[in-house]
Give the backbone structure.
Amino acid sequence: MSIIKENTMKDYPVKKNEEQIVTILDLSHEGMGIAKVDGYLLFIENALPEEEVRVRIEKIGPKFGFAKVLEWLKESPYREEDAKEELLRTGIAPLSHLTYEKQLSFKQEQVTNVLKKIAHMPDVTVSPTIAMEQPSHYRNKAQIPVQKINGQLTTGFYRKHSHTLIPLEDFYIQDPAIDEAISEIRDILQRFGVKAYNEEAHEGFLRHIIIRRGHYSHQMMVILVTRKPKFFQADKIAEVIKEMLPEVVSIIQNVNEEKTNVIMGPTNRVLYGKSYIEDQLLGKTFRISAQSFYQVNTEQAEKLYQVAMDFAQLSKNDTVVDAYSGIGTIGLSLADKVDHVYGMEIVAEAVKDAQTNAAINGITNATYLEGKAEKIMHQWAREEVQPTVVFVDPPRKGLDASFIDATCEMQPERVVYISCNPATMARDVKLFAEKGYQLEKVQPVDLFPQTVHVECVGLLTRVKD
Ligand code: SAH
């Protein structure tokens, strides 16, 4: 066995630390340049299609390896000149070296490719990605790890695939008011002698600083994620934060005692103000609590929801399901246009937000339940709820097959699929197709400029027999 392994090792056409000159053939879905040496695949950071680069081989595996650019011999005409290395290296903005136009077509192609390869639907129309006008400084939420470096509390971002912190103050894709607040809060906590969490030893105190800022309201929430509940001088610290940052309406301590990569723990304690912020979306007001999901790019989320509503061709007779509803943003945005909205969501706090949001906006024809979408959909099917339109907006892993079964049993005219992961959407639309729903068209919307994340909306219609 070991002989076989040794032999294959010897057969690699490249060796570690050796230099090679290669031409980049394609861009991986993670934004890495792809090259081949005698059929062996190399992934190369900061390298774009058609570029010719001199690289050093850094890592070799059985199927592919990684290399680092030493010199660009020929540059792509689509290279964005002033891209910052640390933004590529941290994965904050792994496409920021590619012109925005090309980022948009890259995303459109990603969707076309998965529909072809996974769903076997090569003929579905995938429209050009809807762009953001100013594609930077858009994130309304930041989750920033804290570490002790040279005796100082330091904020920044992890190097890709690692937990090595690269110090950063300008995060480029975040609301600049959030960037400033992070530095300010870090300095206040340093003055109070707050200790950074040490991941390896699982000791220390402050793990993350999370900030949310309403795009329209400018209301700010600060969440300090700590390893232990006991927070020395918490009230005093909250007072100083509030004084230095007048937009802050909510300061929360979130306790995460586990040794885990999951950022937030289960318990929250309000240190100052309210337990939520409010913001506007398509003219309605939404309350957003600490644990609730909220799209990070408000301007583009409005376009996304608009596309979803247009696809749905809503009328007053429609009964709508808003599945994976979060704080109810989709269902409540369209409640005026339809007869009734039924929504469900797994996070209890978000469901409460959705119910409150219906009330705040004077909406009386929306029902939101807490629970797993796949379970509640079956329950509604048994109760003979008859939706005409079903919106789904699941997390990256996509839909549960039994959710698709229940939906098809209810025979809605249209299913509008909002996806943050085209690969799982492609898998799911194939299941829908087997049950008589045809994918008519797909519209990508750029919710995450400068990153490789792709968001899109697909319209499925029921084929009449
Ligand atoms: N539609 C909302 C939220 C979309 S994010 C918006 O646009 O803001 C996906 C949501 O699905 C999250 O709120 C997450 O908590 C929820 N979720 C994840 N798994 C779920 C499941 N099995 N059942 C119901 N909701 C789920």
Summary: The chain has three domains: 2-79, 108-132+297-462, 141-281. The chain is about 30% helix and 30% strand.
